[in-house]
């Protein structure tokens, strides 16, 4: 089975090494040897360590490599939207199997890839696009196909999880924790995609599409980054027996008209320390899946890095190669449900609201009146005072996001409210 590899960076290099080191085992598992017939790179002549491949395999003509008649499987680990989309659509329409780790492309324009795969009667595998080495997408795509998934909650970005775990453990602020993550190599020089939730939102779209048999794109995902989480928020969470994680949440439920719909969002949230996701520390990933028959399932492991991601890529290569040898295809895209995506304003969530207010009689009554006026019920209130100032910490029952937004707007107009220190969503059983 002949492979064309697009990209030879951190992940691509590890794919080459694993293909070489495990060649005998892979041949036995597939029933035929795997051979790399070309590697497309941006620049020739760049030092690539001790890669066990001849220099003649490298080319800068990725599209020409994809079009070659002697290629069975195209493996893409370049990333980005273009020109990767052009390459993969060409490969799929030409009947070549595709293995990709490109979460951004799948989240933005996965439908064009799936349509091209159907047109070319070709396989499209992308296990490595979410949660690195963790076997997650194939269970959603195949193992749970006989069940009804109701909710997927996950920590799918290692950089942000490391930062929040460090803040929780040491009491550090965001800037200090980000600096530590950068020094240890967990954060990129420009961490925007991670800390602002773009990376997690792309993965949330892929997970929701598979879980709910509905095409969900990155544009459908509500996204809120975690740069506003403070050491004070972490301290408040600890007082409640919680911690804060950047979660991707996809759930099935009734929409505004009562018909079934899905909600997909990424944002920082408090979760109780008793929840399995609360103990996921460092740069690890974990995804918690709830299904009607299977119940609660959790997938945990290393969600990034060259070797873990290459492991997932190789698993897909083996599956694609086996299918080509046997003349079969992988399960095609399942998007029969066509469920609408609920806007964030209709999503029902609980909230933790931290207010700095005047320390005088009647403050709590005035604040509670604002909540009542916007039909947001209060679960608990904690009040502390110091001289002229006081702090109110309020946890609500479930309320639509739109109601909470209107409540916060009204609170900011009260003379007795000096500032709204923070508003955090609360997930789990607090």
Structure description:
Belongs to the homoserine dehydrogenase family. Its cofactor is a metal cation. Residues 352-425 form the ACT domain. This protein is of the alpha/beta class and 430 residues long. 36% of the residues lie in helices and 27% in strands. It has 14 helices and 17 strands. It has helices spanning 10-21, 23-30, 62-67, 84-93, 103-120, 137-143, 158-170, 174-183, 192-195, 198-212, 231-239, 306-326, 363-373, 401-412; strands at 2-6, 35-40, 58-59, 73-76, 97-100, 124-125, 149-155, 222-223, 242-254, 260-272, 284-291, 295-302, 348-358, 378-386, 389-396, 399-400, 417-426. The strands form two sheets. Strands 7, 8, 9, 10, 11, 12, 13, 14, 15, 16 and 17 form an eleven-stranded mixed beta sheet that branches. A six-stranded parallel beta sheet has the order 3-2-1-4-5-6, sandwiched between helices. Strand 5, helix 5 and strand 6 (124-125) form a beta-alpha-beta unit. Helix 4 (84-93) packs parallel to helix 5. The longest helix has 21 residues, at 306-326. The model has no long low-confidence stretch (mean pLDDT 93).
């Amino acid at each position: 089975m002949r492979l064309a590899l697009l990209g030879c960076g951190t992940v691509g290099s590890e794919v080459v090494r694993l293909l070489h080191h495990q060649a005998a085992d892979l041949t036995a598992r597939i029933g035929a040897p795997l051979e790399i017939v070309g590697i497309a790179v941006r620049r020739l002549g760049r030092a690539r360590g001790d890669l066990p491949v001849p220099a003649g395999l490298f080319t800068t003509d990725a599209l020409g490599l994809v079009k070659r008649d002697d290629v069975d499987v195209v493996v893409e680990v370049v990333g980005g939207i273009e020109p990767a989309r052009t390459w993969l659509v060409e490969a799929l329409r030409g009947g070549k199997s595709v293995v990709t780790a490109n979460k951004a492309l799948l989240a933005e324009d996965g439908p064009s890839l799936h349509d091209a795969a159907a047109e070319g009667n070709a396989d499209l595998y992308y296990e490595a696009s979410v949660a690195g080495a963790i076997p997650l997408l194939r269970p959603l795509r195949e193992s749970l196909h006989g069940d009804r998934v109701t909710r997927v909650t996950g920590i799918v970005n290692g950089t942000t999880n490391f930062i929040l775990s460090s803040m929780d453990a040491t009491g550090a602020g965001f800037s200090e924790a980000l600096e530590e993550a950068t020094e240890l190599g967990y954060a990129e020089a420009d961490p925007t995609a991670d800390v602002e939730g773009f990376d997690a939102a792309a993965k949330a779209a892929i997970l929701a599409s598979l879980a709910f048999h509905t095409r969900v794109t990155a544009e459908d995902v509500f996204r809120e980054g975690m740069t506003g989480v403070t050491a004070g928020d972490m301290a408040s969470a600890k007082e409640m027996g919680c911690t804060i994680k950047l979660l991707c949440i996809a759930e099935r439920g009734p929409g505004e008209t009562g018909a079934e719909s899905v909600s997909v969002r990424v944002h920082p949230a408090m979760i109780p320390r008793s929840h399995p996701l609360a103990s996921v520390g460092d740069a690890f990933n974990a995804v918690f899946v709830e299904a009607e028959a299977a119940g609660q399932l959790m997938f945990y492991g290393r969600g990034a890095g060259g070797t873990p991601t290459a492991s997932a890529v190789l698993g897909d290569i083996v599956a694609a190669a086996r299918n080509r040898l046997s003349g079969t295809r992988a399960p095609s895209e399942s998007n029969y449900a066509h469920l609408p995506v609920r806007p964030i304003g209709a999503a029902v969530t609980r909230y933790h609201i931290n207010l700095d207010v005047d320390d005088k009689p009647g403050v709590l009554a005035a604040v509670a009146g604002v909540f009542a006026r916007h039909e947001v019920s209060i679960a608990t209130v904690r009040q502390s005072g110091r001289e002229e100032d006081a702090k109110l910490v309020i946890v609500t029952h479930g309320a639509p996001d739109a109601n909470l937004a209107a409540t916060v707007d009204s609170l900011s107009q009260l003379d007795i409210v000096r500032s709204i220190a923070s508003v955090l969503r609360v997930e789990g059983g607090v």
